[in-house]
Structures are given as structure tokens and as C-alpha cells.
Design goal:
This protein is of the alpha+beta class. Helix content is 45%, strand content 22%. The two termini are 25 Å apart. The relative contact order is 0.10.
Amino acid sequence: MDELEFRRRLYADPFDKDVHEMAKNNPDLQAQLDDFLSFEAAMKEAMDIPVPEGLADRIIAKAQEAQTSESMTPEAPHKPVTWYRRHAGPFAMAASIFVATSVYFLSATPTAVHANEYAFEHVYHEMGAFKLTDAVSLQKVNEKLATFGAKLDDLPGKVTYATFCNYRGKKSLHMIYQSEDGPVTVFVVPREDSFRESGRSFVDDRFSGLINPMEKADVILVANLNTPIQQFAADFTSQMEWL
């Protein structure tokens, strides 16, 4: 198995035994495998949403209570019972379960989080990576960018971190490079659904950021406050090519 076949099988199934066996003797391939396994674990954690204990029982009990209350209400004399009243109880129960379940899962999923809020949350969670000093080569960065159909002609600075991550449910690239103004975080997120916030900047008490829409991905940058974030974005995207 050559490296091209390794990557093809890795993308298809990161748990392939032959892929793991080949990676044992090659640090570069092992690093790629570790990235994919980390991404798989992050996706599994994101999708593992626990259902509150007793939720189904409470929904059914509430629906049955409503049905019982309705059945005890006297009807007007000599008024025929129409077909929809006879079946109102089961329909009400089914509708109650559907509505309650929908509300729960809509509130439990992260889709309501704006891209800028998620970017800051992601950066704060990975701030330990700012301490890394070993350089990541252009070749390694481009191997990961190739997953999104892109490559860099040159690095914008010394890249010290480049790994796949789960960005709002999408497999994305998380990079950190060093600038004169401090570390700059770059997310490359596939543009299956463009962010509503595309093209605008955002700030909090410590960082500023920018969402820059490109041909096949949104490039999201986060850097220290009072740094030329627009220039950082221009420098990075000017080096980017789509394959």
C-alpha cells in the first residue's frame, strides 16, 4: 500500500486494520491517523446527546391527563360525535410527543450558535496549542488542505498547529501560525451552507475575528485585539489556491 492508497482508505474508514498497521512504522502517517481518530471521537461526543431521565414517561402522562380531562367534559345533548372528536385523544398524544421531542432536540443542538461565538469558544478551548513551538511544514498543511480541495502556495508565517477539528458538525481544519502581533488562529470550514455572518468581523474582550467566504470554504481568522485582522486574512487567502 502506497501513501496515496493509505490516505484513500483512511478517509473511507479510519479504523481499517491495514491502515493502522502501515501507520505504525511511519510517524507522518501515524499523525494523519491520529488526526482522523480525534475527529471521529469529537463527532461522536457532539452527537451523543443524553435524553433527560423520565422525559418520555412525563410526556405520555401529560397527554393521558389531557385526554382524561377532555373525556370527562359533558357534551351538548343530542350532538353527534364526529369522527375527528373520536380520534382526538390518540392524535393529541402523538402530537404532544412530537412537539416536545422536537423542542428538546432543537434546543440541545448547537445550530443556534453563531459562527463567531463558536470560533471564540473553540479558540479558548484550544489555547494550550498557543504554547507549541515546533514548525509544521507546508507539505503537511497542504496534505490536510487537500481534503477540502485547496492548497497554500506559501505559509503566512510559522505554522505551529494544524489538525482536523469538528466545527459546528463539519470536518474542518484548525491552524495556528505566529505573527509579529501574536498567534493567529485560522479555521477552514467547508461551504456546504454558508454562514449568515460571512464577510463581517467580530470581537470579544480578548480577540477579534473575521469570516472570509471563499470559493469552497469559509476561512475564519481569530487574533488578539488591536491587530490587523483584515491584513492577516488578505495575506492568508492570497496564498490559497483551489484544486
